[in-house]
Please model this.
Amino acid sequence: MNQVAPPPAEKAKSPNAPTEETVLSVRHYTDRMFAFRITRPGAFRFRSGEFVMIGLEDTSAKPLLRAYSIASPSWDEELEFFSIKVADGPLTSRLQLIQPGDKVLLGRKSTGTLVHDALTPGKRLYLLSTGTGIAPFASIIRDPDTYERFDQVILTHTCRQVGELRYGQECVAALAEDPLCGEFAGRLVHYTTVTREPWANQKRITTCLEDGQIYRDLGVEPLNPACDRVMVCGSLDMISDVKTICEKAGLREGSNAHPSEFVIEKAFVG
Ligand code: A2P
Model:
């Protein structure tokens, strides 16, 4: 009797291994920044503002994965990311070349502190970002829950160059047409500053907070722990400087376990 050889045993994949997703679109904004959208597995759940591991298969045994803030809101059927391009970055040097139809790896678990659960209730929400640090806030401004919790949302974005503001400008402009958040668009204020090119407001957001210009420009009272809540995302230096400003104003840092008045997360690069 002929015996059929059993198929070679498939390499067992850990249930925690990243899933393989398909790139749906890619948009390059400048020579330093690009955005892309990928498929979202039905079982992938996250809270707006969280980050997840993203990556590519590598020739070495281990895939190359980095933490990326999810820029799309939790209700979106696809996942969006906004990334820096680092010429010699192990991941972004390759990731910036992806095209629709290519595969990227997506971690199974999201996490992070830039979530509503880490803040106590307030009236005004400041979302302070530099560079690609706007990504988690692109998620939060497109989540209706944000406008249920806060009367006003002030999104600030500071970049080196004017062209680097465009991703955020497009997200904000599209909000008016958003099926879930369109009615709240009037409650979102977008405050942009540029540091290395001429712009109406040519200075760091930290300077605007310290010299009070942002409060004068927007006609609001200075940071007040009684009503203001703050989320911060940018470089390590930026979050450290903003943290000092928040603490000086009397706000305390919160976390998922202990919600409070401001939360921070570094923008991820590489
Ligand atoms: P600057 O041009 O003065 O360094 P990067 O691309 O390096 O992450 O910077 C993004 C933006 O963040 C730039 O406009 C940069 O300003 C600004 N920035 C860098 N460090 C700080 C900081 N400590 N506080 C506030 N803004 C900062």
